[in-house]
Protein 1
Amino acid sequence: MTASWNRIPRVEHAAEVALGWRGRALPDVPRPVLAHGLGRSYGDVCLNPEASLLHTPGLDRFVAFDAATGELTAEAGVSLDALLRFAVPRGWFPPVVPGTRFVTLGGAVANDVHGKNHHQAGSFGDHVRALTLRRSDGQVLEVTPENTPEWFAATVGGLGLTGLIETVTLQLSPVRSAWMRAWSQRFESLEAFWELNAQAEREWPYTVAWIDCLNPGAGGRVGRGIYSGGRHATTAPRKDAWHERRRSIPLDPPVSLVNRLTLRAFNHLYYRQPVHATPRAVHHRPWLFPLDAIRHWNRIYGHNGFYQYQCVLPPAASKDGVQALLDAIAASGQGSFLAVLKTFGDRAAPGLLSFPRPGATLALDFPEKGRDTERLFARLDAIVQEAGGALYPAKDARMPADVFRQGFPRWEAFAAYVDPEFSSGFWRRVTA
Amino acid sequence: MNPMKNVVLFGATSAIASAVARELVDTGARLFCVARDGEALEALLADLRVRADDPDGTRILGATADLADTDGHAAIWQQAQEALGEVDSVLLAWGTLPDQAACNASVDETLQAIHVNGTSAIALLARIAPDFEARGRGVIAAIGSVAGDRGRQSNYAYGTAKGMLAIYLQGLRNRLFFSGVDVVTLKPGFVRTPMTEGFNRAGALWAEPETVARGIVRAMRRGRDVAYLPGKWWVIMTIIRLIPEYLFKRLKL
């Protein structure tokens, strides 16, 4: 049974088939179909209950690489991990990476993913130069932002619904080493965060903050945390060797290891971790992909799984809105291991359904606790809607249709580009 | 250690052979890839050329050929040798997983399955052996199967072909030992490849093509005689071979 990373919802598919080669007709399986990469999204954008999944990790070939310009064309099932292994030793880096490198290029395009450098680099789609898109009627479209801007805007962030993405051409960025220079600093409140953020964003291409959403900081309100900034290093440290210590959660614990007690303790300890106010050398892997070092980390929530809640609030509503969200979470007593706060850059995203937009984005995970979780999300939804914000489809297993439609007002324009033989659990849920 | 600098992969677009090709590219080897499907071969070559920093295709070469057609073997072997110069390593990796039920219903299906997976490979081995024998070095490897270790009702047409191939390789190994050529019989267990799609592939017995490919390259470099991949299949197949036939025939395997 194929599930997404948070293991909610649990659904059955009519058929699942692995794709092996580009340039072939879609397989003969019950319609509608949906491409499924490495299943790192949280919810049902990558699921197609009672219908069919086309697994893309077998489409893992490079197509062409221009070593002079850094333009790479690859099949859509190539993972960012494989891309990094290829590109970094050659002095190139994907211009945008999400918090895990175990995603496919197709998934990165379909969700128009963003990273810690959004304020400088934009989202993944901003660096895509071309796509090949196979439609169910047999047409193969060469999609570029210049020649077919409407198909490009529909397919970038298009949740895999406009057809099967077979290849992706991506402009890589030059780097001079696999290392980064990074620093971190504690802040006592959200006010301190905003001050720090305004300053750090001007100087540092990658920035992100972790928030302790359970223990109050200065002034008695939640909002304390750790701010980090980084950039690609121009040189590797003298001791260049770096070995990842990969651990694994070997099996599902009988109950979720995430509960009020462990959360409070974890958040407290995490806040007290040593910080390094002066930039130091750190390998890109632990800095950009900290959770990738723990295989199957999603198992800590046990068999029932968990939810991610990631929203974006427009700039005018960011300060009050983020505080209101954190207060609501603290009041609920439910909390999150890793609450992440970041501001997006002031730019329009390339896709009709792209999530990144000017403002602040807050991401949290919550163990599945049935009614309590539902009530909390309803409260958070109200704050997001009031602020004129949106929830991230790639991290969603439950948003009501009206929240989606308000957050993505161009969804009806987008719907015209949806392939009639493609669909997903998410799409049926928010458009029904 | 066999250097594996100039390698011919027959059936190169199979999942296992493709993974072997990627392993070898990273070692700087020159490759000649042979496959039946031209489009798939082009996709494979393009991928390998990117990985090899060889956009012009000077290190990564290939040609299409239907290897079930044994009449074409001489020409494609000639072409490979002309392209690479001295070939020091050869891997035979083509094959299909026949539907045993279809074979049970058709003599032609059975003979076809045995030809594609067994006789055609033997024909190519017989073709290239004298060239290796004359040069007195190198390694010849072929992908057999654990299925060739014992006949079972669920896939004995395939098993027959792979068992026959294993015995041919045994004899060839014995013959070429005296001229310094290694002959390697590779016996993968269950591998998650398109060939086995449709099986329930969860569980500890299923391996990734990349894992098997690393084992293949290691076995070829070391000139192993027989390599079960992964190695635990040696234990499993030893037990299976030891089951007395009067019991084995009663099992539903």
Protein 2
Amino acid sequence: MSATTSITDDAGAVERTRALLTSADTGRRRTDRAMTVLIYGAFTLAVIPLVSLLWTVVVNGIERFNGDFLFTSMRGVFGGMDMGGAYHAAVGTLMITLTATVISVPIGLLVAIYLVEYGRGALARATTFFVDVMTGIPSIVAGLFAFALFTIFLGPGAKLGIIAAVALSVLMIPVVVRSCEEMLKLVPNELREASYALGVPKWLTIVRVVLRTSVAGITTGVLLSIARVIGETAPILITAGVSDSINFNPFDGRMMTLPVYIFSQYRQGPVPCREDALDCLVGINFDRAWAAALLLIIIVMLLNLIGRLVTRWFSPKLR
Amino acid sequence: MTTTDSPPDAKPGRLKPPTRRRNHGDTERGFSRVFRWITTGSGAFLLLVLAAVAVFLIARGLPALTASPEELSGKGGLPTGMNSLWDLVGPLVFGTLLAAAMALLLATPVAIGIALFISHYAPRRAASVIGYVIDLLAAIPSVVFGLWGGRTLAPIISDVWVWIAGVLDFLPFWTVNVTNTGRSLATASVVLAVMVLPIITAVSREVFLQTPTLHEEAALALGATRWEMIRTAVLPFGRSGVISAAMLGLGRALGETMAVLMILSPGILYSFQIFDSGQQQTIAAFIASRFAEASGLAVNVLIATGLALFVITMVVNMGARAIVARRKEFSGAN
């Protein structure tokens, strides 16, 4: 106490004390500054690959990214022909992802409702735990599972869109459950209680009050989970195979999807052209792969963007 | 989670289910009961699916486990020189673990840095934007990472590997081979690291943000610099969270297929030559590369290797989730 009063008496002492406190430990301050630089550096380090990836995809993909590419398939395209597109792959992606969504969303939503509204006891705890564990299933294992399941009935060599959709569902359901669960938990209990007080049965309360309140969040969760599985390659590669033709029917025949298209074009590598060939492009396969990558990234980014906007626009104002 | 705030008399609640059941009987009529059955059933269905994954993989992998060496090297499609399944699975598991471990070693420090940057360094308004940018990294499909890694990164980064191999040349007992194409496990690990970065960042960030403000303020009041505050208050608090985040990242890196498949030039060896091509291979990439041509017993062999991958990732993930769950119960944050 006496020290502080004596310091405030003497202006010079204040200066000296302040200098002592702020500059005495140069070592500590240096460490602090070094760590600040390191942490800013870590962030920069993470942004470099992101920027580099987006940049190369846009620059390499924009060249072939036109109506011709979007609306032709690879049927009858071979060698270094300056033709062919990703229409069949876009169709396949749409159909397989749609089927997977139709399978996953009802199941995922019901599980989420169970966990939030009914979940008590060992089954609920086990479900919560294993939903988390399921999010970590390697995608190729999900593909192997769907293959093992369907080839029992359909025989080996069965390659269908629906098998791929089931594989994607195994990956998608836990994601849907997780996000829907978070959204249902956000619904205030007062709303449920008010509904019960009016004599509304529990199931109707859940459907008309709880789900209605959280519909924006659930939509966002579903869109983000679609964005997550739409880029899966390995499970589709081993369940739906590779195709050059347009196929709208997931229950009949092989299907191409955009990720598999990117991979198969990449794997074909540079085309061995003759010296005098005029219509032969050496790097055509890579060009197609980049253009399809651009299309895929645009789709994924749009899904993410729409998902976030839905929450912002349609979520009920609780406060 | 909510065990702490339940009233004390609810503790032996497991002993008196009859009252609860009577309550249900009173309020649940007609469709309400059906609805509860449907939702409970779907919860059980989910567990059934996970069990089915395990059962089907075991059932379809079993023929490969029980087949004789002659069958395996003949119809099983084992590479020449191998005469048991373990000759194949062993190096593959080794390659998978090596790739994932290197990816984790690269990603974890950076991810912790980013998480701290978002939680304690960046201005609040910028923090949410940065969080979104990192999430963007998670949204990019793995096949695009593979394309980028194989076409753009590998040619650039091979120079770095050549340089590092040159520096390491002084080692007397180990010659470092290096490939000029960049199609080595080191390149694949770098891409894997970028891919697991978002998940480690996201979980660590959540944990760091939960640090009790009082701890932080106490550290600052004692004259700690910002870094000392983080070292003494934030990092000890978040340690178990960071560990589980790293394990989740490990789970993702173990199962990642396309990036490895499109970048690595494979071989099936127990080899630490991470800068050379034709040395290692991971399980997932092996399955994807062989599946299209496989038939009969070869498919069973591939499914058996997939079973090994499934078991490894399940153990890692369950460990990580168990740590997270324990932390939720015992941390002072709630």
